[in-house]
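Homework help board

Subject: predicted structure for assignment chain

Our instructor gave us this sequence and asked us to write out the predicted structure in token form, then describe one feature. I got the tokens but I'm not sure how to describe them. Can anyone check?
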Amino acid sequence: MERSAISTRNAPIPAARDVVQLLKPITWFPPMWAFMCGAISSGAGLDGRWLFVLGGILLAGPLVCGTSQAVNDWFDREVDAINEPDRPIPSGRIAGRWGLYIALIATAVSALVAWLLGPLVFAAGLVGLALAWGYSAPPFRFKTSGWTGPAVVGLTYEGLSWFTGATVMLGALPASEVLVVLVLYSVGAHGIMTLNDFKAVEGDRATGLKSLPVTMGVENAARLACAVMAIAQIAVIVLLAIWGFVLSAGLVGAVLIAQCAAMPRLLRDPAKYAPWYNGVGVTLYVLGMLAAALGLGGYI
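My token output:
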């Protein structure tokens, strides 16, 4: 069935609603939030930069992130047939090779917008697009490893988006302190991505994807995810305090304490409470990102 669906000629043009579903708007929030944190951490004003900021938001969310979702759905159509059979491609609502064509068009548009925003943003955009394809597409298919897959997503969603936000505002490389903090939050996001893998354990096992919940077991993977998130934030807190951003460090510390209070419930039954923790703990994590950005930008 899959082979015939891919080789079908004259497949109908997909409906707009199905294309939007393919691009998964719900996933655009993390990189757009990281972009905002980057813009704030730059400490620069918005005067004369509005179009650049709007272009950067579009690039981080609907374009690069949307591209990654289209690429992922195309190369994961067999996995989705098990985990999410109602997705546009396995359900047949996006037939033939339209899933691939949409991914290619989105890649080209993303590269064009990144180029219009300047050479540094263009470079970051190309890295993000390369990782988006490498994450799902052979021969790299980074997502088959529970170590490299979450690392690639964390770097793209948090690090590159933060970098883009700061660079768009400054028109130059951000300060070294900003670069260090965005790297640390990218590392911590590895834990968030590991928690996201809990919903697909059955499909990952069936298709040979070696996510950490599959290779380590759900309980051990949950402990590791919590540790990675916490250690990264502890490093951020220490560095902010050393750099003199005491209030910012205190706020990040407060949200980390709240996360630690929520972690025991997650660890009691990771498979059951991972979605709950993604709503509570991850929200606190990204609020800590904002607190760090406010300190770095000189606002608090």
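Reply (TA_rk): Your tokens look well-formed. For the description, you could write something like this. Confidence is low (pLDDT under 50) at residues 1-8. That's the kind of observation they're looking for.
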